[in-house]
Amino acid sequence: MAPNPNRRIDIEDMNGVIVATLLEKKILDEPNIESLGRELFALVDTEGRRKIVLDFHLVEYLSSAALGKLITMHKKVTTSGGRMALCNIQKDILDVFKITRLDKVLTLCTSLDDALSKF
């Protein structure tokens, strides 16, 4: 299947854990955030995935609306009996997670290996 140039995430299956690498450096504008949300939610709603790692190594900026999508994604995964971890989060974004106390809700990991070990 040819890659979709409009996709917001790159998907890789690592021993039953889906690793979704966010491809945007700046997740700020509403159309991108909506598209990202649709792609992420489809992993749970359409594909029935229950073990998901979101890899943030390319992401430099994240808007509050994007945080909302992450919270919704977390709820979808946990409601379906699954788990989700986030990894490779740059310091500025990590600070936002801490300020908003999302570090208490979301599983934040320093590396992909660390995130995969949560499953």
Task: Explain what you see.
This protein is an alpha/beta fold and 119 residues long. It has a single domain, classed as 2-Layer Sandwich (Transcription Regulator spoIIAA), CATH 3.30.750. 39% of the residues lie in helices and 24% in strands. It has 4 helices and 7 strands. It has helices spanning 30-45, 64-79, 91-99, 112-116, and strands spanning 9-14, 17-22, 26-27, 51-55, 61-62, 83-87, 107-109. Strands 1-2-4-6-7 form a 5-stranded mixed sheet. Strands 3-5 form a two-stranded parallel sheet. Strand 1 and strand 2 (17-22) form a beta hairpin. Helix 1 packs parallel to helix 2. The longest helix has 16 residues, at 30-45. It starts with 8 loop residues before the first strand and ends with a helix.
Can you give me a brief rundown of this structure?
The chain is α/β, with parallel strands linked by helices and 119 residues long.
Outline the secondary-structure elements.
Blueprint (H helix, E strand, L loop, with lengths): L8 E6 L2 E6 L3 E2 L2 H16 L5 E5 L5 E2 L1 H16 L3 E5 L3 H9 L7 E3 L2 H5 L3
Parallel strand pairs: 2-4, 3-5, 4-6, 6-7
Antiparallel strand pairs: 1-2
Helix pairs in contact: 1-2
- Give the biggest sheet: 5 strands, mixed
**DSSP summary: helix tally:** 4
Assign the structural class, choosing from mainly alpha, mainly beta, alpha/beta, alpha+beta, or little secondary structure. alpha/beta
Q: Would you give the CATH topology?
A: Transcription Regulator spoIIAA
User: How would you write the strand order of the largest sheet?
Assistant: 1-2-4-6-7
Compute the average pLDDT: 94
| Overall 3D form | globular
Distance, first to last CA: 29 Å
Kindly report the oligomeric state of this protein.
Answer: single chain
Query: Which H/E pattern describes the elements?
Result: EEEHEEHEHEH
Q: Could you say what the CATH architecture is? A: 2-Layer Sandwich
Our estimate of the beta-strand percent is 15-25%
Low-confidence stretches: none
CATH top level class name: Alpha Beta
CATH superfamily: STAS domain
Helix content: 25-40%
- The number of strands is 7
Whole-number count of domains: 1
Rg, nearest Å: 13 Å
